[in-house]
Specification:
The protein has 221 residues and is an alpha/beta fold. Helix content is 43%, strand content 13%. It has a four-stranded parallel beta sheet with strand order 1-2-3-4, with helices on both faces. Helix 3 (43-52) packs parallel to helix 4 and helix 4 (77-98) packs parallel to helix 5. The radius of gyration is 17 Å and the shape is globular. The chain starts with 13 loop residues before the first helix and ends in a 9-residue tail after the last strand.
């Protein structure tokens, strides 16, 4: 999941942070060979998912996870520990259990964000993860070679998650970005998908973090 540019107007409700899996919706759109619904942060379920794959796979794209924005004054330490640890453990778990299922030259592609690169109130956990994931990606690329490992770091992406975070301020945020981004439009899911496909197809790319934010980081403030 991608945080909307790093400056949330309000904290996401609990259901936005841990929504139940809905494979039926994706299946209707993508017509996959099969689907599986499970909690990706559950180690046993994650391991079983990869064990149940019938044969080698070419690519794994991981979008599980959601942003965590909490100021220190309102932080629950156990919740913060869980959110930080689960995200890193999920990344390591996909690498550990996927290494025997992904073909040589195939890819693991993980999703991160760019918003946490700027410090701010409520950004402690998000910023720590933003710093940790590129380092983890680079190390996994060495250990899993010739499987390739890359990270997509997105800014604001116009998705249902962004809508849940911004609420009635979503349209104003869209207009702001259209007026200020160098590309003069809002980044959408298709843009992120195109980058993911490029990382899967270009077999010279591994261990890198690839930003997609429409030039948002070039702007001051």
């Amino acid at each position: 999941m991608v945080p909307p540019g790093g400056r949330p107007r309000r904290s996401p409700p609990p259901h936005a942070r841990r929504a139940p899996p809905r494979p039926g919706t994706a299946a209707n759109e993508l017509h996959p060979l099969s689907t599986a619904a499970f909690d990706a942060t559950d180690n046993d379920h994650l391991r079983q998912f990869f064990q149940d794959l019938s044969g080698p796979v070419d690519h794994v794209l991981v979008t599980a996870g959601s942003p965590s924005y909490r100021p220190l004054s309102g932080m629950d330490l156990e919740a913060a520990r869980r959110e930080f640890g689960e995200r890193l453990a999920l990344t390591l778990g996909v690498a550990l259990y996927g290494r025997d299922k992904v073909r040589a030259g195939g890819t693991l592609v993980f999703m991160g964000g760019t918003g946490g690169r700027r410090p701010g109130t409520g950004m402690a956990v998000a910023s720590a993860l933003t710093a940790a994931l590129p380092a983890l990606t680079a190390n996994l690329a060495l250990e899993l070679a010739p499987i390739r490992v890359n990270l997509i770091a997105a800014g604001f992406v116009d998705t249902s998650l962004s809508a849940s975070l911004l609420g009635d301020q979503l349209d104003a945020r869209r207009e702001e970005l259209r007026a200020t981004l160098p590309i003069r439009r809002v980044v959408g899911p298709a843009d992120v998908a195109a980058l993911a496909l490029h990382l899967m197809c270009n077999d010279a790319l591994t261990g890198g973090t690839y930003d997609i934010d429409g030039g948002q980081q070039l702007l001051s403030g």
